[in-house]
Amino acid sequence: MREFWETNRFVSLAIFVVTVAAIVLISSAGSSTTLLPVLPNQLAQIRVTASAAFSYQSRLKTELTREQILNRVPPVYQIELTPYQQFETHVRELLADLSAYEQSLLKPAPDGAAHPAPSPAAPFRPRIAPAPFLPPEISPPSTPEAPLALISIKDRFNANGPYRLTAEDIAALLTVGNSQARSALVENGLANLREIYNEGVHDGFGGGSTPDSVSLFQLRNPNGDVHESRVMSLEDALTYLRVNLSTEGLSRPANRAVFNLFRNGLTPNLVYDREATSRLQQQAVAGLKTSLVTVERGQTIISPGDRVTPEQYEMLEAYRHFLESSGSAALDQGLQLFGRVLLVLAMVMASVFYIRLEDPETLQRNGRLGLLALVVIFNLALVRGSYSLASLPYFVDNFSAAALLPYIAPTALAPLIVTILIDTGSATFMALLISIFTGVIYGNRLDLVVLTLLASMVGLFYCRNVRKRGRIVKAAGFGGLTVACFALLIGISDQTPPGTVLRQMGAGIATGLFTGVLVAGLLPVLESLFKRTTDITLLELTDFNHPLLRLMQMEAPGTYHHSLMVAQLAENAANAVGANPLLARVCSLFHDIGKTARPEYFTENQRERANPHDKHAPAHSALVIKSHVRDGVDLAVKHRLPRAVVDAIQQHHGTTLIQYFYQRAKNERPPLPATDPAGVAESAYRYDGPKPQFREAAIIMLADAVEAASRSLRKVTPPALGEIIDRITAERIANGQLDDAPLTFEDIGKIKTSFTFTLLNMLHSRIAYPPAEELPAAKEDQNIKSRTR
């Protein structure tokens, strides 16, 4: 059953179909134009173009047009006369105060002196009544108390409003003759001021300027009608007032005092009429029509890398509604899906052809194909998961965090696993495939394709022939460092904010380290699931404290030493032909662990003890000898040794004949010509096999036989070793034991040369040193001693 699942072509086809379907689903699900996770003000990750021409009513453009119309409607004002009316009252009160003050000057004191002016402690309360005529020749007395009374009048007037009249202005007004002359002058001023107020005064804001510096304003009449009228600015009104108040016959101080008095009453009197303005605006937009936007076929709606504007988002929403309402959505999605299927199919087919050229063994083993498919699908699923995080509210609102998502995709995961479990060639193409689909998922971004491919290749370079799990993390860390360096360069090129660039660099390094840790954690699971063996596991098995090796040291020391010799032979030979030397060494160390069940039945463990085979029939002895293979497989499975080691134990004798006991059986039984000339069935004296299926097992078969035969040599010389090695190799080839192993005659020649070199160095002879008393120097010393006696 295992062989069926491993080699059946229908299983291979099923793996191919499932791989294509899974990649299409991962790379295209949720990425159609009607389901794009795009929000306003978000960086777009994919390009959207209109597949057909359509039109839609743009609410945003209509609102923009409406705002423009409303902004063109001038505000409406009302003329407010209240400031004038208040000022008129205050001016008339000032005239009354001045008249009262003059009356007080004309009233004689009890002692015949003039009446003194009131003190500041007792405020002056004038009578509000017309004062008698003060002849022009009468002027206010210049008594010391007079200025205090004028200051009091000035203060009362200024307290009525924002007035800035001075005592000098009050004194100047008193020089204008009598009260009737002042009243005539004030009435003239009020008439001018009233005229200005009726026309309106603005503060310099609003309205349109005309050539004569008089602004045009929309004014509302008391009856509610709105008309355009010219309104003077405050500065122009002051000029107008100054000109019209100048009176001939008055002194310059008196003219200035009159102007200073009435300038206090001049203030802007336009009041914004919100209700009238709103009515005018409503009339302006009453005929506004909804803006219609037309999108041509092929027009780009959203471009990758651009921040989505509200107008683009509205256009995208309209495009979605168009597709749904017109029935084009299914067609559009179908075309996109068909295009994605073609892309995935092309990439997977390219992978198949590449593997067929570089590693044909992988295509012959469904286990390897399944491993490739699983890690690629799992890796792309992780990439798609990182991309889908962009739709979370946190990343939607935080654009700097969303910019990190391409850098947290662990794109080097599958390439690292493949290079460790299969080979670097297949891993290289897997890196290209993962990078291409990462760019597709993130919106056809070429920069991501290049960046992720480079990072994966750097990781593969440092992960070649890895034998320690820590080096996996180191290799993946170098890949993350590559991402960080190029994130810095891209950030400088795109003028990305330094904070975002630093976060992207940190994300790249952290993702690299996380990928290394994840690969190291997944390797044992994948090794067990797909019966693969990494150099890391093999190196761990070379520990001489392994329970099976310790058992062999204690129970079968001769076999243990034999295994060490075979391991050295096989490792050097595997290295010579380009096989896996570490696998050859490990398999050699465990190939005879089955002998620990009955160690005394094997010559290397008998020492000076009797041979137990002398008490048994040849058939029984052959059965015991063969059983060490079965016992070894049982022990290997019990201790969960890798599948390659189990296979090497099972195949290291192939179906060879146990020659010694077979000949002994033939000699002990008479011939039976009718059946078998020797009367002995060879099958009972042959190992159960199978024959070696891989190069390392075939090398171990030859090394095992050569090492055992070399023990019988009295003197180890190159010709003698060469003869034994040639004979054993020729016998194995003649018996078809190497037919299933992928070895060429060139490889076999290299193996024989390696065996000769290794055995000559292991079995070298040493100089036989004579005893100390037989050395020439010792004999001379003895002669000297004898002569002295």
Show the helix and strand layout.
Layout: H1 2-7, H2 9-28, E1 48-49, E2 54-58, H3 59-72, E3 76-79, H4 82-106, H5 146-158, H6 167-174, H7 179-199, E4 201-202, E5 215-220, E6 226-233, H8 234-245, H9 252-263, E7 270-272, H10 274-285, E8 291-295, E9 300-302, H11 310-326, H12 328-358, H13 360-364, H14 366-388, H15 393-397, H16 399-402, H17 413-421, H18 424-441, H19 446-462, H20 469-494, H21 498-530, H22 535-541, H23 547-555, H24 557-577, H25 581-590, H26 618-638, H27 643-651, H28 659-668, H29 695-710, H30 718-734, H31 745-762, H32 776-788
Parallel strand pairs: 3-5, 4-6
Antiparallel strand pairs: 1-9, 2-8, 3-7, 5-6
Helix pairs in contact: 2-12, 2-14, 4-5, 4-7, 6-9, 7-8, 8-9, 11-12, 12-18, 14-17, 14-18, 17-18, 17-19, 17-21, 18-19, 19-20, 20-21, 23-24, 24-25, 24-29, 24-31, 25-27, 25-29, 26-27, 26-28, 27-29, 29-30, 30-31
